Amino acid sequence: MTAHVVLGTEIEMPVRVRRARAAMALFTVHGGRAQQAIDYSGLKLRHIGPRHGLCALIFVRYDDGDLGPYNEFGVAFPVTTGVLIHRLPVDGEFTMAAGRQIWGFPKELAQFDVSYGSKFDGRLSQDGTEILRLEIAAGLPAPGALFARPLDAFSCLDGATRSTKWTMTPGAVRARPGGARVTLGEHPLASELREIGLSRHAVSTTHMPRLQMEFGEAVRTS
Fold it and tell me: In this predicted structure, what is the pLDDT of residue 144?
């Protein structure tokens, strides 16, 4: 069993999350512009049709896990070999350091104001500038087994692209077509989402009010 020492604390692999909550909205984006945004990784966007790709906006609250409690927001793109974690603001110093050191995840500090329930409302800001607000309507019960599968999560930090085995095991899922409203602020991340043509309406939305996860060791791919 391997381990990493982060800010003086030993973290054994794999890292386990015993209890978390998540809310996700999936949007279409302009394929060419989104590809330019992720060219730094060396990965190829997975296209849907000739002109579009997908972008997931994900809020997660980690209540009990090996890295402690914290909030996280992810901008992720399905790529041909898995999913690229493109942006990953968090609200904890320790998880930021661990994410960058162990997996090369692009974690940075931000501020969160989130409300989980049958409906979700999340606000994200950084240094007093609002990034976005994501509101998700209530969904319908869906089989958790549809989402309980390992993913290849890719990251690229300081020119190194890595792949990590990421397993999600939801205890409950609620999903629906559409059902999201996103309001973009004036932060550079919000501007980037505009530039890649984030669609006005979501393709689908998903709530996972009970969720376990496991993160394996990162493997450098380039």
Answer: 76
Q: Could you tell me if residue 7 is left (phi over 0), alpha (psi between -120 and 50 degrees) or otherwise beta? A: left
Q: Is the CA virtual torsion 10, 12, 17, 23 positive or negative?
A: positive
What is the DSSP code string of 24-71?
Answer: EEEEEEEHHHHHHHHGGGT--BPPBTTTEEEEEEEEEEEEEETT-SEE
Q: Measured between alpha carbons, how far is 184 from 145 in angstroms, rounded to an integer?
A: 33
Between the alpha carbon of residue 149 and those of residues 58, 112, 168, 212, the distances in Å are 17, 28, 6, 12
DSSP H/E element including 156: strand 150-157
Pick from 17, 165, 189: which is nearest to 103 by CA?
A: 165
Residue among 115, 123, 116 at smallest CA distance from 185: 123
Judge whether 79 and 100 are in contact, CB under 8 Å: no
Q: How confident is the model at residue 49 (pLDDT cuts 50, 70, 90)?
A: confident
- Residues 132, 121 contacting (CB under 8 angstroms): no
In what order do the strands lie in the sheet containing 111-115?
A: 111-115, 120-126, 129-136, 180-184
